[in-house]
Amino acid sequence: MDQQFTRTLNLAGASNFRDIGGYQGQDGKLVRWRRLFRSDHLAALTEQDTLALADIGVSRALDFRGDAERAALAYAIPNVRYHALSIEPTVVQRAKEMVLAGEQMTAPIAVSLMQDTYRAFVSHNARQYAELFEHLLEDDRPLVFHCTAGKDRTGFAAALILLSLGVPRPVVMEDYLLTNALYRRPASFNNGAPDEVLNVLWRVQEDFLEAALQAVDADHGGLGQYLERQLGVGEKERARLAELYLTEPVHKKS
């Protein structure tokens, strides 16, 4: 990792805010630092946090939260353009339905629900992820994309971006799993569920992202065809993304 940059930013009001730069992509080039950030929700940022975002030049925020989530925890950041790319939290809805039906949520059921959620990102939410890439292709002004915890909707978004830039899958998975070390789950979200269930719903597992990537391969013929046919990101757009977000590594003199 380039020593002049850090992966995470220590914000008081967001625990999962991080830079996805520095990874090696296609042709040995590196994803540019301080251009692409992923995060949990930004409604609890302090004044000092907003100054930190201004200092790194963040000018766009892309919010994957659903309508009720955005209404409950709305925010506005000075000089940052806000864009809603709504993906409703289907796991939360399914959990509520189970409670109303008198069914018990268990860890295995929660894992299955999470995998179904990730497959749905691929099949049902292509429009929102296509919009994400439209914003990325506009220019290289620093932006942050997020949902509530910055782990699922955001995690799949980060994976798509990094994969489109040629970052290898194992490295993309490592970035995805960083959430488990960073995200601080709010106590208010516990809702009395057992810890074993909460540890599924509020953390990430390789199985979750793998479910989405396997759906991309099995149902859409692989990443390249999915990007082009479902997200409108063909060869020309991928070349533009590389131009905007990849850079030659700096070789230090011995």
Automatic annotation (TrEMBL):
Pfam families: Y_phosphatase3 (PF13350). Signal peptide: none annotated. It comes from the Bacteria. Residues 127-167 form the Tyrosine specific protein phosphatases domain. InterPro entries: Prot-tyrosine_phosphatase-like, Tyr/Ser_Pase_IphP-type, Tyr_Pase_AS, Tyr_Pase_dom. One of its GO terms (molecular function) is phosphoprotein phosphatase activity. This is Tyrosine-protein phosphatase. It comes from Diaphorobacter aerolatus.
